[in-house]
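FIELD: query
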Amino acid sequence: MPRLCLLSCLFVFFVAISASAADWPQFRGPAGDGHATARNLPTIWNETTNVAWKTAIPGKGWSSPSLYQGRLYLTTAAPMDSNDADSGALSLQTLAVDAASGRILWNVEVFRQDAGAPKVHAKNSHASPTAIVEGDRIYVHFGHQGTACLDLAGKVLWKNDSYRYEPVHGNGGSPLLVDGLLVFSCDGADEPLVVALDAKTGGEKWRFSRTSDADKKFSFSTPTIITVSGKKQLITAGSGVVNSLDPATGREIWRATYGDGYSVIPKPLFGHGLVYITTGYGTPQIMAIRPNGSGDVTETHVAWTMKKAAPHTPSLLLVGDELYLVSDMGIATCLDARTGTEHWHQRIGGGFSASPLFADGKIYLQSEEGPALVLKPARTFTKLADAGFKERTLASYAASDTALFIRTEKNLYRVERK
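FIELD: result
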């Protein structure tokens, strides 16, 4: 076989291997939209049913697991003094777990948190942002405590702890990788920022100062990257305003305002030519915005809004022409994604922080108390199954080819059909 042909065949072979790997490398999956390619997932699980393994995770953290090439990566905050776990002194760590066996492969301290560090909300942790894995690098973020890059063996390659803003309720929003930049929000008590670091070195590439009329400036949203008319936009939601930025420069393209909405958590979503956001606490609402404007588009580009049972914490899920949401208080809703018209509205019980997952033709919802629900995506409410563990669960799912990975307050589970 000619050398050029052999090299071409090898290239196709390796690309096929990469493309077939069911990785979940960041918050809400490969596209950041809660969609997984998994098949034959279980719809029922509990402590004794369809559990492949269960691994105790040291410390406490609500970062969701990220999956890459057969390994799970997550962060945690472990007490520095086992004899005084309430002192507040914490070791902020990154862990690698073998996805097949559940064995912890390594656990590396990235930062240390002093005993006098600010307290977090009861529904938060000191290790809530989800790691991103790309190529041979893992990116972890601990909000005001710092951001770091590790290799796949756990060696810390760089750290940046220069953004010492005043947090409120702790850290939350996960970072985003785009074109060699690691982007995250620093929405603290005042002077909120969006920052882009060079993913190779950790040095700052640009910063954007977010301004709004909201009295409370703190928020925790994860950015979203979209493409409009062939150009990328970085969508970042904060208190009182959602901004679209040029990801290369941080220059603002457009913004839409929503008054005093604060503590914005859900990740923006894009589909049907619309950006979907929720506006946080105060009077929460969902806004659908056409992203082809410039400057202040509040009066010109908002396609529709909806206040009824809008979530504070879980992100939205788009499946086909329908937009699905679950409120923190346990009300699930299905809307027409183009118009905001309600198809159904159903109380499902429990409290919800985890974002919904679409996989194997089904919608998976995870409550804070442990129970889970599986729904049929349709314009009528159809519950397919009840499942779940008897453990507090605020992290969102990760998914592989045939398995779900579920992080509870003390454990990490692999759930799959047996």
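FIELD: remark
Residues 1-20 have pLDDT under 50 and may be disordered.
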